Amino acid sequence: MPHSTPKEHVCWGGGGCHADQHRLEVRNLKVSYREVLALDGIDFATECGRSIALIGPNGAGKSTLLKTLAGLMKADSGSIIWRGQPLTRSSHEIAYLPQRGDVDWNFPITVRGLVEMGRYPNLGWWRTYSKHDAEIVERALTAMDLLDLQHRQINALSGGQQQRTFIARALAQEAHVLLLDEPFTGLDKPAQENLSRLFRELTAEGRLLIASHHDLQTVTGFFDDVLLIKRSQVVFGDVATCFTPENIGKAYGQ
Amino acid sequence: MTSFPTLTDFLAEPIAKRALLACLMIGFSNGFVSAFVVLRKSALKIGTLSHALLPGIALAVLMVGLTAWSALAGAVFAALIVGLGSIFLSRTSRLDQDTSMGILYTTAFAGGYLILTQLNIRQKLDEWLFGSIVGMADSDLWIAFSISLIAVITLTALQRSLLIYLFEPNIAASLGVPVRFLNYATFAITILVLISSLQAVGCILSVGLLVAPAATVYLLTDNARTLFWGGGLIGAFGSVLAFFISYPLGWSVSATIILVLGGFFLLAYILSPRYGLFSKGRQA
After folding, report:
1. Is the Cβ–Cβ distance between B261 and B212 less than 8 Å?
2. How many CB atoms lie within 10 A of CB A16?
3. Which residue from A90, A94, A117 is facing B164, i.e. has the nearest CB?
4. Class of domain B7-271 (CATH, top level)
């Protein structure tokens, strides 16, 4: 019997074993927003199983970079290569999680309803929701400890629970890469610790997390790698060696 | 319509049957689409659009005479001109789109009003301003029916992608939802439904018909899908109820429809178990 390859799009319990196949390369990326240059010379490579803090002052282009990686904005030049293929449009393997402030929390939807949205890439607009889809949603809810809250309207949740609901949606989407815009913002200390623990679990499963982050104090505890930007790239590498006062000064100084 | 002594006598007349049917269909389709308007938070835009339709209809009547199809074509034309015109104005000047729209639609409305008063259809003017749900011909009913059918079928078919888009456009785009197509499709449906509500309650009151039903359900449910069918049911029930209230009192049907729907909303606002004025644990 031939050696069975793991199912293409599943990171669950991957343990990073096929991380080399799950490589994200960003090459000399240049992005403009409304004819103003927002990002230039972004160039790094990483793979599933890492968590990356995207750091830089306000207006440095953090959100723009996340949106470009998610396929929401077009690059002027450069390329994004995911698993050896240029990424030209949105992919279910890449999930985008907006800032909490960008979300209408009064929208009439429950936790479960929001998580079910993650099945859209599989279902399209007409296919019916199958038992398989329900199982995946169930698993995502369980992983994020949301089963008891699944019928709550999303405004009746704490900040940490809201963030977990969005992560559960990304899991239901079977995403390898999670792009998170300021996930720790507005959470109290215990909720931040809790989310950080979840991040470690997700990367241990073989997922790649890229999160914009503005609290310089917590970078070291929460993330593996750091990408410092100020329109252009200041440095990329693991937190211990690259997140130095000198590099921070380059990003935040004059 | 005052020549029928009792409601039962009146109901035996074809004109009453047509009006009742119109209330049912137009109430339902407008209520159904109001879910989209409420979730999109575009009530004010709808108000603008409904006024913008008047000059288009007036121009069409001026050019080819009054038929249902000329009115429809004129309405679509006017909506596109004001809609696209406001985008163009805001891009080529330092004004924002709301300001541009505010100028364009009032100017267009004033022009349309003057055209209609100059034409020999003075008696029709009131109907465009305040609706004519009682005076509908069979052809009007068929148009209303087709519009309702198209609106309900399209919004039902697109519902899954539409709800993601309405919740968060960025998430929708990242999931591969065809955002641009949805924009155009929903714009087209909004215009179509506006035309039917314009005929029923007129351009001044049409916003109410396209907002109040789903706004009422919004206070009662946490399920966005319920908003569509619930809005439709409330729109239809409210319109039919208004028909029966207005006749014995001699009130205008269109104004009564909006009043009844406003009453429903007020009840939900006060009494909703979860989001009402007196419910515990209410969230702002």
Report:
1. yes
2. 18
3. A117
4. mainly alpha
Please identify which residue in the block is written with the tokens 């069918």: B229
Cβ-defined contact of A71 to B157 (cutoff 8 Å): no
Q: Where are the domains of chain B?
A: 7-271
CATH number at residue A215: 3.40.50.300
In angstroms, the CA B127 to CA A40 distance is 59
**Spatial distance between the Cα atoms of B96 and B90, rounded to a whole number of angstroms:** 5
Reported as a single tens digit per residue, the pLDDT across A56-114 is 998 899 999 999 999 999 999 999 999 888 887 788 899 999 999 899 999 999 999 99
All residues of chain A having their beta carbon less than 8 Å from the beta carbon of residue B222 are 108-110, 153
Task: Find residue A95's DSSP bridge partners.
Answer: A178
pTM as predicted: 0.86
**Given the DSSP bridges, would you call strands A77-82 and A232-238 parallel, antiparallel or unpaired?**
unpaired
**Euclidean distance between CA atoms A111 and A184, whole angstroms:** 19
**Which pLDDT value is given to residue B30?**
94
Is B42 an 8 Å CB contact of chain A? no
ipTM of the complex: 0.87
Work out the angle between the directed axes of helices B224-249 and B138-157 (0-180°, nearest 10): 160
At residue A3 the predicted structure's pLDDT band, cuts being 50, 70 and 90, is: very low
CB contact under 8 A, B222 and A109: yes
Chain A residues with beta carbon closer than 8 angstroms to that of B282: none
B217/B221 Cα distance (integer angstroms): 6
Residue A30 lies in domain? 22-88+210-254
